[in-house]
Specification:
Blueprint (H helix, E strand, L loop, with lengths): L2 H19 L8 E5 L5 H9 L4 E4 L2 H5 L2 H7 L4 E4 L8 H7 L2 E5 L2 H14 L4 E5 L13 H13 L4 E6 L8 H14 L4 E3 L6 H6 L4 E4 L1 H4 L7
Parallel strand pairs: 1-2, 1-8, 2-3, 3-4, 4-5, 5-6, 6-7
Helix pairs in contact: 5-6
């Protein structure tokens, strides 16, 4: 078994325990293995270990490796977890199965129109900027309910839930609690929250999807 496969098993075991500790099953939480910056050779051992759900941050990067991997491995589900520009919507709808970063009407309309053209129906998550950080994508908490309603009624999107990325340095718990409260008020089941450093905390607050990269693939070598 490869190191990545070992790490995958460890992460899944930790998710199962966190879920059990809070009266849930591990199957209630979808592990999204975040493969951004890693090439096909690094991803293949994780696929070989049985992981089917993966996340990428950039459309162009994903397009360079996932079509070939999807041909080799059946049943892969690909999630876009990074910001999406409207000029990348056509490629995103063709390649991805779920979009986690819907945060403005222009993008919602573009996705709706493109899904109709391609005859594909992708579930989406609305990204909420729980820390109101000016540099970060996401709708402000005060605006989320109205935006979710427009996504549903005006744009006809299948809104599966909410997504957040807590501010670096903040304890994530209050942000996860806020997102859960918002989702409950909007009758949304999906909660995409938690990464390598805090996914167990996210599970304790009801996460249905956790986005884990480095804890599975190892440290990333970002270009300078």
């Amino acid at each position: 078994m490869s190191d990545a496969a070992d790490r995958l098993a460890s992460v899944q075991s930790r998710i199962d325990k966190a879920a059990s500790d809070h009266g849930k099953q591990g199957d209630d939480v979808t592990l999204i293995a975040v493969s951004k910056t890693f090439d096909a050779d690094a991803i293949s051992p994780v696929l070989d270990a049985g992981q089917k759900v993966f996340g990428e941050n950039r459309v162009q990067e994903a397009a360079g490796k996932w079509p070939g991997l999807k041909e080799q491995y059946e049943g892969v589900e690909l999630h876009l977890i990074g910001p999406l520009q409207t000029n990348k919507v056509r490629d995103a709808v063709a390649l991805f199965d779920v979009i986690h970063s819907v945060d403005r009407d222009k993008l919602a309309k573009a996705l709706s129109d493109e899904m109709a053209k391609q005859q594909r129906s992708l579930a989406v998550f609305v990204q909420v900027n729980t820390g109101a950080e000016p540099q970060k994508a996401g709708v402000l908490p005060a605006d989320a309910a109205a935006f979710v309603e427009r996504c549903r009624t005006e744009h006809g999107l299948d809104v599966a839930g909410l997504m957040c990325i807590p501010p670096a340095g903040d304890h994530p718990g209050p942000h996860f609690a806020l997102l859960r409260k918002m989702a409950e008020a909007l009758d949304l089941k999906g909660l995409s929250m938690g990464m390598s450093g805090d996914f167990e905390t996210a599970v304790s607050f009801g996460a249905t999807h956790v986005r884990v990269g480095s804890a599975i693939f190892g440290a990333r070598d970002y270009p300078v």
